[in-house]
Amino acid sequence: MKKKIGILGGTFNPPHIGHLIIADQVLHSFQLDEIWFMPNHLPPHKQLNIRIANEDRQKMIELAIDNCSYFKIETIEIERLGKSYTYDTMLLLKEREPNVEFYFIIGGDMVEYLPKWYNIDQLIKLVQFIGVNRPHYSLQTTYPIKTVEIPSIDISSSIIRDKLKKGESINYYLPDKVIQFIREKGLYGCKSSN
Known about the structure:
Blueprint: E1 3-10, H1 17-29, E2 34-39, H2 54-65, E3 71-73, H3 76-80, H4 86-96, E4 100-107, H5 108-113, H6 120-126, E5 128-132, E6 145-148, H7 157-166, H8 176-185
Parallel strand pairs: 1-2, 1-4, 2-3, 4-5, 5-6
Helix pairs in contact: 2-8, 4-6
């Protein structure tokens, strides 16, 4: 029997409770074995205005998921460098993990963007897409995706970065260990706590 793995890709800049809730809800809704958080190096659809070292993003994810045995981190895209096209990544993962059935988790914003994804017609043959609702976006598409309703939490990494820059509280937006790491490293314009 094939292992069922959900992939949650993103910049995770920083990873927040919205990411964790999505992963947990999808895992349980589809009875998956694990969720792999997959930070990308350079997303083709997004400009990264705030450059944080890949090692720091990876460490924040590790801290965010460290108390959950069915959450893992997959670093294939940050190891490859260059633009992170999901099609190329999934070809490599399917080759490396032939006994895994992959489910690729995307938010409503990416559901609307699917027609513009690189090699989308081949990609939908490699993975089962799972769309999760996001405020202000639709899950309607002509592509064969499954959907999961999650609690509507209007939190984004950009909101958190903005709050940090302004010196505002980010308590409960992120796991405490991630907040502590951000403060210790002085990331996102946050005053270092050292």
